Amino acid sequence: NQDASVDACTYETLEQRFALAVFYYATNGDNWADQTFWLSSTPECSWRFVSCDGVDQLVTKLDLESNSLEGTLASEIRVLNDLEELLLNTNELQGTVFPEFQQLEVLKVLDLEENEFIGDPWPAVSPLTALTALRISRNNFTGQIPEAVGNFTHLVDLWVASNEFAGQVPTTLGNLESLQNLLLYDNQLTGNLPSELGNCDLVVFLAYDNEFSGSIPEEIYSNSNMIVLRLDDNELTGTIDTQIRNLVELEDLRLSRNDMAGKIPSEIESLTKLRKYSAVEKFLLASI
To answer: Percent helix, strand and coil across the chain, each rounded to 5?
Structure first.
C-alpha cells in the first residue's frame, strides 16, 4: 500500500514507523481482524489502533485488543519510549516478555491478558514503576510475585490471575496505597495473606483457588470500600473477625471450601448491601 511518490526515509518519525512495522510483521499483521492504514504512506498516527501526542506525533497508545494478533512481541517496541498504554489483551500472542520492556519507562497501562505468554514476566516489568494498571491474567506465566512489586506506588489494578505463579505474596503490596483491584485467583500461591493489605484501598480482592493458609488478617477489613471479597478454595483457618462490620459496601463475600470454623459474627448483619454470600460449612454447623 506504499505510495511510491513518498520517500519513507524522509519521515521525521522513521524510527517509530519502523518499530510499528516490525511489530506488525511479528504479530502476523496480514491476518489481523483490522489493519486499516497499517504500512501505508498515511502517517502512522492515523493507523488504526495507534494514538499519538498532539505536538511531536510520538506514539503514546497502542490498543489492539481482540484483533487476532498471533506470534511474538518484537524487542523493537522499546523504540516507542513515549508509550503510555499498551493494550494487547485477548489475542493469541506467545513467547516471553523480553527485557527491553524495561525501556518503556513512562508506560502507565500494560494489558497482556488472555494470551499465551510464558516465562517469568517480573524481571521485565518490575522496573516500570509508572504503571497504574498491570493486567497479565490468563496466560501461562510462572515465577513468584517479587518484593519489587511494592515499588508500583501508582498502581490501581494488579491482575495476575489464572497463571502459574507460586510462593508467597510479598508484604510490600502494603506500599500500594492506591491499589483498588487485586486479582490473584487460580494460581499456586501459598502462605499467609499479608496483613499489610490493610494499607491498600481495595475494592475488588479475588484470591480464590490458591493454597493460602492461616487466618484472614483483621487488617483486611480496613478496606472499607471493598465490594467483592473472594477467598474460597484455599486452606484458610480461624474465624471471621468482628471487624468485618467495616466492609459496609460489600456485595459479594465467598469463603467456602476452606478450613475455617466458629460462629458467624452477628456483625455480618450490618452488611446491608451483601447479595452473594457463601461461608464454610463448619461455620454453618457452629451457628445452628
So the answer is: 25, 25, 50
User: What one-letter code names the amino acid at 114?
Assistant: E
| Burial (CB count <10 Å: 0-12, 13-18, 19+), residue 146 | middle
Q: For residues 151 and 100, what is the distance between their CA atoms, to the nearest angstrom?
A: 19
- 204-206 and 50-52 beta bridge pairing: unpaired
d(CA 250, CA 38): 46
Amino acid in position 144: Q
Task: Order across the sheet with 70-72: list the strands.
Answer: 70-72, 92-95, 116-119, 140-143, 164-168, 188-191, 211-214, 235-236
Q: What angle do CA 268, 273, 274 make, to 5 degrees?
A: 55
CA-closest candidate to residue 174, choices 153, 204, 191: 153
Q: What is the pLDDT along the chain (288 residues), one digit of tens a residue?
A: 444 444 555 567 899 999 999 999 999 999 999 999 999 999 999 999 999 998 899 999 999 999 999 999 999 999 999 999 999 999 999 999 988 899 999 999 999 999 999 999 999 999 999 999 999 999 999 999 999 999 999 999 999 999 999 999 999 999 999 999 999 999 999 999 999 999 999 999 999 999 999 999 999 999 999 999 999 999 999 999 999 999 999 999 999 999 999 888 999 999 999 998 888 655 544 443
In this structure, are residues 218 and 242 in contact, taking their beta carbons and an 8 Å threshold? no
Report CA Rg, the chain: 22
Please, how many CA atoms are within 13 Å of residue 143, restricted to the half-sphere of its CB? Answer: 18
Q: Report the alpha-carbon distance of residue 117 to residue 126 in Å, rounded.
A: 17
